[in-house]
């Protein structure tokens, strides 16, 4: 069923007047089927009863006189129409939830799997460390055990030797005692042998000294054991912490995506797949996974980011959006794509389209340009931009007419911890000969050569440097007609600034 259009419905209705049964989710009437009020807003007491079969306008009987329809009218059942609209809205919501839950489930699986890996890793480290400690104590125990056994082995040898000696002497004595005294007297040789054995035995007995046995005394240091017990508790410590996805090559951090958030360049967005967006959310991103054929944004959302292959034409950006961020989107920005409510425009990494004149409306005051594919064209940035930041690997010359005369503050250099250094080629025509420009910031990573006539001689401009070495980018020093130079965080290098770099006529400030 096509949406029915009331001639009395204003798509710019304020939040208070637009809020009804779907207070959290208020959409353009060209996007979502709109509920129909039963009474005509012009003829207050007349009910809306008909719809024009040609233009689909809703009319009461008094409206027919001036409507001039040539296609005829159809009777409309307002209750049924509103019920159908509610069903359609619910279908969109539910399909969005299905897609959303698919992504949440992937992130849940990832986070859970990582916790399992971490758990197993911790258990492995615990077991291996415990084994190492056990091996240490076992080796120490075996060392002490070897010393105890060595001492006892000396006792065994001593005992065995003297037992054998005693046995030997006993056998000799018994052998001597067996000899008959009368027979010995008859045999002089036997008598002499017997006498020698007795004398030898006596000498051995007189000279024998049995070495004393030794024992080892094992002392256990109970106090030290208690200290070891205490210290052993410090060997393993557990601290509870939230899991964080630290993958550097992916802005979709799973620990954030389980709640539908992701944070490119430290800007956190709620990633919508087409489900209703909670009312407390003000910054929302849409990417290639968005399932609807038109962009649906509630009024409480003021900042949107179109990211990672977002493929819808940019015809339905709501007029209440204040900040627009575009990345590697399929469809280009065109004239009237950006509503007049947008004051800040970010054209970020991967934007692969030209930006023709007339694309950026005069209401945009702040523009941020990153490493886009095509160079900026003359007059492509609009006529009222006051803050312009060219950052993160922008790799094209900035020619005459690119920077509008309306710009007051101009920045060159990368944002945050981006890996892409700016490669902007500055020319003698980069800075407008006339205009409002007051300050040029060279951020810490900027290292491109600056032409001698980069600053027009008729301009009184303040230069701000974030690295002392940047002053040398001016081959012949900072032009003497520059008004001020501000050095950030480098007061300790004051003595390094040579007169040939900055003329004494230029005021230097340190921040």
From TrEMBL:
Residues 9-21 have a biased composition (Low complexity). Residues 1-21 are annotated as: Disordered. The keyword Lipid metabolism does not apply. PROSITE patterns: ZF_BBOX. InterPro entries: FNIP, FNIP_repeat, Znf_B-box. GO terms for molecular function: zinc ion binding. Keywords: Metal-binding, Zinc, Zinc-finger. Residues 40-78 form the B box-type domain. It comes from the Eukaryota. This is B box-type domain-containing protein. It comes from Dictyostelium purpureum.
């Amino acid at each position: 069923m096509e949406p029915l259009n009331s001639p009395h419905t204003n798509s710019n209705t304020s939040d208070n007047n637009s809020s009804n049964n779907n207070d959290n989710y208020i959409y353009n009437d060209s996007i979502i089927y709109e509920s129909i009020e039963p009474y005509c807003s012009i003829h207050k007491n007349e009910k809306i009863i008909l719809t024009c079969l040609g233009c689909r306008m809703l009319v009461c009987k008094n409206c027919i006189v001036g409507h001039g329809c040539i296609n005829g009218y159809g009777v409309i059942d307002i209750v049924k129409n509103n019920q159908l609209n509610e069903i359609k809205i619910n279908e969109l919501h539910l399909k969005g939830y299905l897609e959303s839950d698919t992504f949440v489930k992937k992130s849940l699986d990832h986070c859970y799997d990582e916790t399992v890996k971490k758990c197993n890793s911790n258990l492995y480290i615990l077991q291996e460390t415990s084994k190492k400690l056990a091996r240490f104590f076992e080796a120490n125990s075996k060392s002490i055990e070897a010393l105890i056994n060595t001492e006892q082995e000396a006792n065994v040898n001593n005992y065995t030797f003297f037992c054998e000696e005693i046995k030997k002497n006993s056998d000799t004595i018994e052998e001597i005692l067996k000899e008959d005294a009368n027979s010995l007297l008859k045999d002089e040789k036997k008598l002499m042998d017997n006498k020698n054995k007795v004398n030898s035995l006596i000498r051995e007995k007189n000279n024998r000294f049995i070495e004393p046995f030794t024992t080892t005394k094992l002392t256990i240091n109970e106090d030290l054991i208690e200290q070891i017990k205490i210290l052993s508790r410090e060997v393993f410590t557990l601290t509870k912490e939230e899991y964080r996805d630290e993958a550097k090559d992916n802005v979709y951090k799973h620990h954030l995506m389980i709640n539908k958030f992701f944070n490119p360049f430290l800007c956190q967005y709620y990633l919508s797949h087409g489900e209703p967006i909670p009312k407390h959310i003000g910054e929302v991103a849409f990417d290639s996974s968005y399932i609807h054929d038109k962009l649906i944004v509630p009024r409480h959302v003021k900042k949107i980011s179109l990211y990672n292959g977002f493929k819808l034409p940019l015809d339905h950006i709501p007029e209440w959006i204040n900040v627009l961020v575009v990345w590697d989107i399929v469809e280009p920005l065109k004239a009237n794509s950006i509503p007049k409510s947008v004051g800040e425009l970010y054209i970020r990494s991967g934007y692969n389209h030209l930006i023709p004149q007339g694309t950026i409306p005069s209401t945009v005051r702040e523009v941020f340009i990153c490493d886009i594919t095509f160079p900026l064209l003359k007059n492509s940035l609009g006529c009222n931009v006051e803050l312009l930041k060219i950052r993160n690997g922008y790799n094209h010359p900035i020619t005459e007419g690119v920077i509008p005369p309306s710009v007051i503050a101009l920045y060159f250099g990368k944002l945050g911890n981006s890996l892409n250094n700016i490669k902007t080629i500055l020319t003698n025509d980069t800075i407008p000969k006339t205009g409002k420009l007051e300050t040029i910031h060279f951020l810490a990573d900027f290292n491109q050569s600056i032409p001698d006539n980069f600053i027009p001689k008729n301009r009184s401009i303040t230069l701000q440097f974030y690295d002392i070495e940047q002053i040398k980018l001016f081959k012949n020093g900072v032009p003497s007609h520059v008004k001020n130079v501000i050095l950030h965080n480098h007061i300790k290098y004051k003595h390094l600034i040579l007169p040939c770099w900055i003329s004494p006529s230029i005021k230097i400030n340190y921040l």
